[in-house]
UniProtKB/TrEMBL annotation, chains A, B:
Cellular localization per UniProt: Cytoplasm
Family assignment from sequence similarity: Belongs to the sugar phosphate cyclases superfamily. Dehydroquinate synthase family.
Gene Ontology cellular component list: cytoplasm
Record-linked HAMAP family: DHQ_synthase (MF_00110)
EC number of the protein: 4.2.3.4
Species whose genome carries this gene: Paraperlucidibaca baekdonensis
The protein's name: 3-dehydroquinate synthase
Main subcellular location of this protein, as a coarse class: cytoplasm
MF-aspect GO terms: 3-dehydroquinate synthase activity; metal ion binding; nucleotide binding
Family matches, as InterPro entries: Dehydroquinate_synthase, DHQ_synth_AroB, DHQ_synth_fam, DHQS/DOIS_N, DHQS_C
Free-text remark on how the cofactor is bound: Binds 1 divalent metal cation per subunit. Can use either Co(2+) or Zn(2+).
Length: 363, 363
């Protein structure tokens, strides 16, 4: 597999995508600058993969400590972030310490935010163990935690030193998590790569069967897109990076209303993308066949296509605190065409309500 | 008064030091980029100064909300930071919102950290109302909160858009707070300006009597030093900015052990600086007369010169989590000469124990 690079000047870093990279000393050690390493993982991943990683670091003479968090989006909060700070301070780790995130998007986001704020900033490394984290959350430096009133509302931009995406670990991934990752992969096709979308239509059965070569190609093509977007708009100051949020405004509203951890992020994004497609059709930008094709693809990926029972008022209230909104005005990512996303200001909520109603979300 | 500038390229910002600047529309409004402003203050300062500030912003047509925190270092924690996030989300403030800190160092540090992390970063403005905040904490972008195991252990570097240091508000400052600010002012003389130290010796009675011209000159000379140091080493990656920590390793140990809010930060720094001077004398760098002169100056400024009842073990344990330490090795700022500070690695704790014992801190 080629090594990808996220090109951000002095903050540039490599993404290694291959089998057996997660505990590879040659890939890890050059990115650890001090003598102290804190491993952050969860109760699901740690029993499977923490020991070999710890062994490589200890063999290099490093001081290694660990903190194991419960597994799930509902634990992506301040209280559990505090466990990381407690462990760092109890171990008396200093500003040259390195944090390593070994887990999915929740572990990556929390570890990155802990690294951004512990003693005003220490280094960190991403070892994503879910498909979703490998193709999306581990790349690009968005870190943070949830607030009861909104997802990812507290956080920082903090780039890792390196990303080690080990495709071998995907073999132990639960089916639901595999599907959730496929949602974000489909997203890249929808917003900027129609050819990739066709490839995904053709190869979805093989991806669902965890064909290693197909999964590796899907991860690499997704990371390539993510790296390009992040290099163009690291801090989401323009609309370039915001396009990665296709389906996320609707999706975050589902996650916030259902309670974090009930729906996987990728599942909520799947329904959210279909809602965005529906709304794009109402704007006359894509046709019914395109929406139907997306629905078929999401179903083939084992993803939900129906909204949960939420009132329209609650749904819209959660959408109103989205980070893309400016001065209280709703902004959504929609599809001008399949493979061509755009950020639009939405002042008239009537078509949004129509889309919600079409998914059974009504007053 | 001249306008000082903190020269940090695109992140440069002005410091206005004068009477009647805190609610001056011409100085404030150019630094507010969105339509939403959150005022953050405390129960002591808000009744005195919040209304005129709010009036100026509302007259400009801005949406203004406020959050009033309890007053004191013991509230500089996650729980109270959360109140700021709650207020921002309840008001549905977005990424173009501006936070304004109206208060002392605690309010400034917490507001800045909230700005650094709300939706991964929004703008903020510092309106410091204590002498200590005007001469030190409001300038330079160090923000954060305390952890029970260490002061300022969680935070971010986040520069404000502007600092409005209104010397008129110092008239309402309690005597203890005035003295606490004088401690940080004395620090600038000790670490880099012997002439300023002489000026302080000469004018301490006038400063204690709150002579407006003398206070304004002390604030301006201090901010000049702070701005120079920050411009040279914004992220404290070299030892330049670390020199501002003279007395702070000892001082933080006092604050952590006594419980936040018992000693004012400046009071702890005063004793800490005298301890650092004592240790510098043990190293043969300064003489007993210099230590005695510092003691006299601190007493003239109404500051403590004796340590509280803490065991040496507890004192050293708190010093061991200082952010300057590297890979577990203690690092202290000491005086090579009066007006010339240096960061030193301290591997032999014996002279540190001797200094602690000289202040009554023993096993």
């Amino acid at each position: 597999m080629p090594v990808l690079t996220v090109a951000l000047g002095q903050r540039s870093y490599p993404i290694h995508i291959d089998e057996q990279v997660f505990a590879n000393a040659d890939l890890l050690l050059p990115h650890i600058h001090g003598r102290q390493v804190m491993l952050v993982s969860n109760t699901t991943v740690a029993p499977l993969y923490l020991a070999p990683l710890r062994g490589v670091l200890e063999a290099a003479g490093l001081t290694v400590a660990e903190v194991i968090l419960p597994d799930g989006e509902q634990f992506k909060d301040w209280q559990h972030l505090q466990h990381i700070f407690d462990a760092l301070l109890q171990a008396r780790f200093g500003r040259k310490a390195t944090l390593i995130a070994l887990g999915g998007g929740v572990i990556g986001d929390m570890t990155g935010f802990a690294a951004a704020t512990y003693q005003r900033g220490v280094h960190f490394i991403q070892i994503p163990t879910t498909l979703l984290a490998q193709v999306d959350s581990s790349v690009g430096g968005k870190t943070g935690i949830n607030h009861t009133l909104g997802k990812n509302m507290i956080g920082a931009f903090m780039q890792p030193q390196v990303v080690l995406a080990d495709t071998a670990v995907l073999r132990t991934l639960p089916d639901r998590e595999l599907s959730a990752g496929l949602a974000e992969i489909i997203k890249y096709g929808l917003i900027r790569d129609p050819g990739f979308l066709h490839w995904l239509h053709d190869h979805m059965p093989g991806l669902m069967a965890r064909d290693p070569a197909l999964l590796a190609e899907a991860v690499a093509r997704s990371c390539h897109h993510k790296a390009e977007v992040v290099a163009a708009d690291e801090l989401e100051q323009h609309d370039v990076r915001a396009l990665l949020n296709l389906g996320h405004t609707f999706g975050h509203a589902i996650e916030t209303n259902m309670g974090y951890g009930q729906w996987l992020h990728g599942e909520a994004v799947a329904v959210g993308m279909l809602m965005a497609a529906d709304l794009s059709q109402r704007f006359g930008w894509i046709d019914a066949a395109a929406v139907a094709a997306l629905r078929t693809l999401l179903l083939a990926a084992g993803l939900p296509v129906d909204a949960p029972a939420i009132s329209a008022a609650d749904f819209l209230a959660a959408m109103a605190v989205d980070k893309k909104n400016v001065d209280g005005r709703l902004r959504l990512v929609l599809l001008r065409a399949v493979g061509d996303a755009v950020v639009v200001n939405v002042d008239d909520l009537a078509p949004v309500r129509d889309t919600l109603a079409a998914f059974g979300v009504s007053a």
